[in-house]
Structure formats: structure tokens, C-alpha cells
Amino acid sequence: ELFTPECKFKESVFENYYVIYSSMLYRQQESGRAWFLGLNKEGQVMKGNRVKKTKPAAHFLPKPLEVAMYREPSLHDIGETVPKAGVTPS
């Protein structure tokens, strides 16, 4: 697949922790304001020059692709993995 500059978006976290996407290529001609990605109530893509970053149509919830839970190591575990100074491992 060939990706063009039209496929590049800047991802930003908005003040309400939603994610907004703005075009790296297109901007408003007069004001220079970025075009934002937005979906209407039917789930169809809206025109970039009609979407503002403050409108709910441009707000997306971030979804992690994979969640991994790790146990935090204790100080005892950390001490075992660090080699002592001057001691060569056998």
C-alpha cells in the first residue's frame, strides 16, 4: 500500500482526555487553522473545514491495543539481579 501525505495526522490529547486528529497537510486558507478529523451522528466522515477541535464530532476515545499487567519488583528481587562489584559471574 502507498501512503500519501494526506494520510498523515497529528494526534493530540484534548483537555477532557479525548484524542483529536488534525491534518498535517491541509489548513484553512484565511486563518491557517488546522483541519480536524470528525464523524457525524451517522458515523460518516465530516469535511475537515467544518470540524472544530472543541466539538464532540472531533473527540475520540483512546483504546489501548494490548494491556499488559506486570508485577512491580520488590527491593529483594532487584538486589538479586544486580551483580556485586568486583565479583565475576560464574
From TrEMBL:
Keywords: Developmental protein, Differentiation, Mitogen. GO terms for biological process: cell differentiation; positive regulation of cell division. It comes from the Eukaryota. GO terms for molecular function: growth factor activity. Belongs to the heparin-binding growth factors family. This is FGF14 factor. It comes from Hypocryptadius cinnamomeus.
